[in-house]
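A reminder from the course coordinator: this example appears on the midterm review sheet, so study it carefully.

Given structure:
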């Protein structure tokens, strides 16, 4: 079985929009009110669901959807009835599964060529994140992954460990 990657999905479905991809893949996206969580996913009776907090910015909703889509595609085996609360407890890049879902989200939402063009134009991290309409922490994850692949990139600081975690972390403010 082929590994699911953001690149393959983009090439196959011709979109980077996580909501469109979810719909095309038969994944149900529901907007709910939660006090702290930005999003989580669950498989119920063989149906996949992504739950997104409706009280966030559109930017953060899109990032949370991309992150949860990553979980459903990369970590389906962990989403059993007994383990679904794991998602609500972690959302932390110190966890391999959370970091992998963040990498998936960064690859889905951030086009490498567009990022290179912004760098050529002299954008700094904050202005590039703003131009790409993503949180600066997600941009840093994308840059770190490009660095691992051999790109000559200097990442000035590390992403916050829990930037896609609870609402109180203000992740949609940058």
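Designed residues:
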């Amino acid at each position: 079985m082929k590994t699911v990657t953001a690149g393959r999905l983009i090439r196959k479905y011709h979109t980077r929009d996580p909501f469109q991809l979810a719909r095309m893949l038969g994944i149900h996206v529901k907007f709910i009110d939660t006090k702290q969580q930005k999003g989580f996913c669950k498989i119920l009776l063989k149906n996949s669901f992504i739950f997104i907090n409706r009280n966030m910015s559109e930017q953060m909703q899109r990032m949370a959807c991309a992150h949860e889509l990553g979980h459903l595609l990369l970590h389906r085996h962990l989403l059993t009835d007994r383990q679904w609360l794991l998602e609500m407890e972690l959302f932390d890049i110190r966890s391999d599964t959370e970091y992998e879902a963040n990498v998936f989200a960064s690859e889905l939402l951030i086009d490498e060529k567009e990022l290179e063009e912004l760098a050529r134009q002299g954008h700094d991290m904050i202005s590039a994140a703003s131009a790409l309409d993503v949180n600066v922490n997600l941009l840093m994850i994308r840059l770190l992954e490009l660095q691992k692949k051999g790109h000559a990139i200097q990442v000035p600081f590390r992403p916050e460990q829990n930037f896609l975690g609870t609402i109180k972390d203000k992740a949609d403010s940058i």
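The domain at 6-107 is CATH 1.10.10.2910 (Arc Repressor Mutant, subunit A). The chain has two domains: 6-107, 112-160.
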